[in-house]
Description:
The chain is mainly alpha-helical. It has nine helices and no strands. Helix 4 (64-73) crosses helix 6, helix 4 runs parallel beside helix 7 (123-144) and helix 8 runs antiparallel to helix 9. The protein is elongated and about 55 Å long. Residues 1-11 have low confidence and may be disordered.
Amino acid sequence: MPQQPLHRRRPTPGNPRVQRTRNRVLTVARELLPQVGPTGLTYALLAERADVTRQTLYRHWPNRASLLFDLILEGPDLGNYPTPGSDVRTVATDWLKSLRDGISEPAIRTAVLAVTAQADHDADSAQALVRIGQDRHAALNKLLEPSGIQIDDAEFTLLYGPVLARLFLDRSHATDEFIDTVVTQWLTTLEGPQRPGSPNAS
């Protein structure tokens, strides 16, 4: 079974009561985060709105970075995640569109920006950011398995980098046409007759 994407992953099943509490807290946090921002999402506010104790919150998320991390990992199912395939262009294009749509969800966007901003001075946020990247990279390679292609860290960055720059730095839209252009350029980095499964392999 392919690894689920960041914004669709569900936690490992456990005690149903604990899981319900956890899901309720994440739902409330997801509603509050775009309204109050990451600094305004205090454990006192979250405990009050989710009707749990702060001790319960700290048991699940010992720090704010771990809460934001799970908000990203266990985001809503947007219903558009691609399936594994042998056509590298199609998989990469669909994956980038899914990434764009996931980040466009207000709570996920706010959480990603917060973790990124805090990574330089907060070790927990830095670790969370690394794990997010590793999760996305592994999920994409899982989708690419039928093609025989597995991309390395640099190739992964070259694929998603322009889309994140468009969304966060340019503050513009990553249209389908923009994504098509990114993928077309990215495919040239994979070309090579000696690489199994590459677009130009014989």
